[in-house]
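Something for you to look into today, if you have time. Could you write out one complete protein record for me, on any chain you like? Leave the record below and I will have a look.
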Amino acid sequence: MVTGQRGRPRSFDRDAALDKAMTAFWERGYEATSISDLTTSIGISAPSLYAAFGDKRKLFDEVVVVYESRYGDFAGVALAEEPTARAAVRRILREAAEVYTDPAHPPGCMVISAAINTTSEEVAQALRERRNANLELFESRIRADIATGELPADTDARALARYAGAVLQGMSQQSRDGATREELEAVAERALLAWP
């Protein structure tokens, strides 16, 4: 006869727990989000959190995947769908203005803001690699436009990709500082004036 329940209760909803953990990491960043913050947000005990997700780092890694599939995929989609790199970057910056200021979740980009002031080199490196992968996608698309003559042959693809990335990262921080969607859309339009 079984007298006690082992493991997580049947009512545990992993997707809902990941959503709540994502909000905590997005609001506070990786470093400032404690296990206590996470257990309070999710509504489970520390042993249940460890049983369900492993440790804080593993939970964060899962959260980043959920975040990117739900909020961070707009860049890749724009790069794939738009006819030129300029059109893709314009769309990315305009969509970032919308996503970064949506009141349904914390402001900015979690992948950018979660890495600020972290002492975990592993977390910082993992997030850096994700951001650099996006820059590589930008650069690849710009190089394709150079090859077809859409952009001048002397265009510095790497510098232009970094410029777009810097604007995107700046927009994330500006949204955390209270910039509105309209203000960030204006930044996006101004940024495109530098496009060759």
User: Anything to note?
Assistant: The chain is about 70% helix and 0% strand.
